[in-house]
Amino acid sequence: MDKKQAVIIVSLLVLIVCTGVLASQAQSRFYVHTNEFTPTLINDSNSSEDSYFTTAKLTRSEENERYCQALKEIINDKSQSESAMKTASDQYAQHTIVINNELKIEEQLKADGFSDSICYIQDDTAKVIIQSKEKLDDEATKKVQQVVLNIAKIRDIVITNRE
What we know:
SpoIIIAH_sf; single chain; 3-stranded mixed beta sheet; 3 strands; SpoIIIAH; Putative stage III sporulation protein AH
């Protein structure tokens, strides 16, 4: 490396350091003071109803993610036996199908006019919770049963409503 290259490298390093110092000084001017924040409570009659379904879906999603991650670790762990890896792979594929069916059922029920719903599928049973202030009539019940049967091919269906 000759003298000219050394000068160029040193000057670039000086520019990088100066840029970092200027950026940190400029950024400190833009901090938001947390004591100026005033929380606002939104009083919506539907918020508790919506929060049940939102919370339930979020919880289900987190549980599914943890379960799938555990299965992936078994599948990718070379110290596991071949049969354990195969079993985990089969369970992962089956669980992915269940997750997709649950989401498809919820989307179809929303498209069919139900305000919100959550579906849990376990083995050969589906539990569907529908957001409704009154008990579902026979027509609505049959519609839910038909959606579950068409998508997941499950006949054992428990339907409940929640306000």
